[in-house]
Amino acid sequence: MDILLVLGCLVATLMWVSWSCARSYFETGRLRGMEEATREIGRGVASHCEREGGIVPAAVEKAMAAVNAVAQKRRHLTGTKTTDPYHAQLWILGDAIGEACWLKGHASGIRRKAPAEGKIRVDLSINELLQLSWLAHLGFQHMMPNYRGFEIYRFNSEEDAKEGALAVGKIEGVIPAKDRPVSDLTVQFKNRQKLITDWWEKEPDRLRA
User: Fold this and answer.
1) Which one of 1.20.1270, 1.10.150, 1.20.120, 1.10.10 gives the CATH number of domain 18-74+84-113?
2) How far apart, in whole angstroms, are the C-alpha atoms of residue 122 and residue 4?
3) Where does CATH 1.20.1270 sit in the chain?
């Protein structure tokens, strides 16, 4: 009976030691795998951020250092369900990398949207483009000495004329001040508005006459 008890204790001890060793090997391999993955992520982020003369953001470097510091401390397993410090630092690292990538992508997007050097970009609606295309076409025709056309194009309404005037004013407004044909754009704007008001506000008087 004593022999069976001793054998039972030995078997139980062997099983506990085997389970403890397996758990230790698993945790060690898991930690090394996370460390290797973190190093590879760090290399990828560094190559991405250092492209075109950039640098790795300070937040990413700080998060990487914190992850390495936690990895060097062997964590003792407990029965409580607490957050793994390594996981917490990985979350911080992921947040820092995500923010760095977003900032880099946002900056690249702004650079791509920006006009080339010496160029000016103007945001116009479809209606403004239509107004300007007709005005430019008619202006070009009347600037040609050999133009002998008799077709007549007019604005349909006061609102239509105001939209055309605003579209022209928007084009004039983006011209650099040193390159503008006139120094005061308000003069031309007021002249256009006067043409509009003189025609449509005096229309009842013309009809009565």
Assistant:
1) 1.20.1270
2) 92
3) 18-74+84-113
Query: Percentage of the chain surpassing pLDDT 70?
Result: 88
Please indicate whether residue 13 or residue 52 has the higher confidence score (pLDDT): 13
Number of neighbours of residue 168 by Cβ within 10 angstroms: 18
- 78 — pLDDT class (breaks 50, 70, 90): very low
**Band of pLDDT at residue 206, cut at 50, 70 and 90:** low
State the DSSP string of the chain: -HHHHHHHHHHHHHHHHHHHHHHHHHHHHHHHHHHHHHHHHHHHHHHHHTGGG----HHHHHHHHHHHHHHHSPPPP-SS-PPPHHHHHHHHHHHHHHHHHHHHHHHHHHHHHSPPTT-------HHHHHHHHHHHHHHHHHHSTT---------SSHHHHHHHHHHHHHHHHTS-GGG-SSS-HHHHHHHHHHHHHHHHTTHHHHHH-
Overall average pLDDT of the 188-209 stretch: 75
pTM for this structure? 0.48
Average pLDDT for 147-161: 81
